[in-house]
Amino acid sequence: MSASEIGLIELEPETVKALLDSGEAVLVDVREEEEFAEDHIEGSLLSPMSDFEVETWPSVPGKKVIISCLGGVRSAAIARKLIASGQGWAIHLKGGLNAWRDAGLPTVNQS
């Protein structure tokens, strides 16, 4: 495990859904607006990676913030940036929206 992986927590889609359903977590989607408009996980917040700044990163007191993208690459990159900025750990949805869909979980499809 490299230093950049320390503090990076990967959760499976079913685990993320359980945390969202229980109100323990909020999902932040780091894809771009057009992608989000096409399809996203219900209740997720949009915070595009292209606009990422540590100072403006969503913080929800009392809830775990879980990062999501399409395949897990961008969310892991954002998680690493947050960890590098001094945040002790960051959680992302392993495999992103693709893994969520593959697990048969629902999305909000705008088409």
Characterization of this structure:
The chain is of the alpha/beta class and 111 residues long. The protein has one domain (3-105): Rhodanese-like domain (Oxidized Rhodanese, domain 1, 3-Layer(aba) Sandwich). The protein is built from four helices and seven strands. It has helices at residues 13-21, 33-38, 73-84, 96-102; strands at 8-11, 25-29, 39-40, 45-46, 64-68, 90-93, 108-109. The strands form two sheets. A five-stranded parallel beta sheet has the order 1-6-5-2-4, with helices on both faces. Strands 3-7 form a two-stranded antiparallel ribbon. Helix 3 links the parallel strand 5 (64-68) and strand 6 (90-93). It starts with 7 loop residues before the first strand and ends with a strand.
What descriptive keywords fit this protein?
alpha/beta; two-stranded antiparallel sheet; 7 strands; globular
Report the total helices.
4
Please state how the strands of the largest beta sheet are arranged side by side.
Answer: 1-6-5-2-4
Helix content: 25-40%
The CATH architecture can be named as 3-Layer(aba) Sandwich
Q: What name does the CATH topology carry?
A: Oxidized Rhodanese, domain 1
Helix-strand string? EHEHEEEHEHE
Question: Mean of the pLDDT scores?
Answer: 93
Number of domains: 1
Which stretches of 5+ consecutive residues score pLDDT under 50? none
Largest sheet: 5 strands, parallel
Radius of gyration: 13 Å
Q: What share of the residues does DSSP label as strand, in percent? A: 15-25%
The level 1 CATH classification is Alpha Beta
What is the strand tally?
7
* General shape: globular
